[in-house]
Amino acid sequence: MIKSVKLKNWKSYEESILYIDSLMILIGTNSSGKSNAIDALIFLSRIANGVGIFQAISGDINLDPLRGGAEWVCRKGTNAFTLEAVLEYAGNDYEYSITVKVGEARALVAEEKLTACNGNQRLFYTNLRDEELLNIPTYFATGKQGKGQHFELSRNTSILYQSKILQLKKKGITDITTDLAKQLSGIFVLDPIPNHMRDYSPLSEKLSFDGSNIAGVLAALGDESRESIQKKLTSYLKKIPERDIVHVWSEHVGKFHTDAMLYCEEAWQGDDNYIVDARGMSDGTLRFLAIMAALLTNEPNKLIVVEEVDNGLHPSRVNVLLNMLKELGDEKNIDVLITTHNPALLDAAGTVMIPFITVAHRDDRGQSHLKLLEDIQELPKMISTGNIGEIVTNGKVESALAREG
Question: What's the pTM value of the predicted model, to 2 decimals?
Answer without folding.
Answer: 0.94
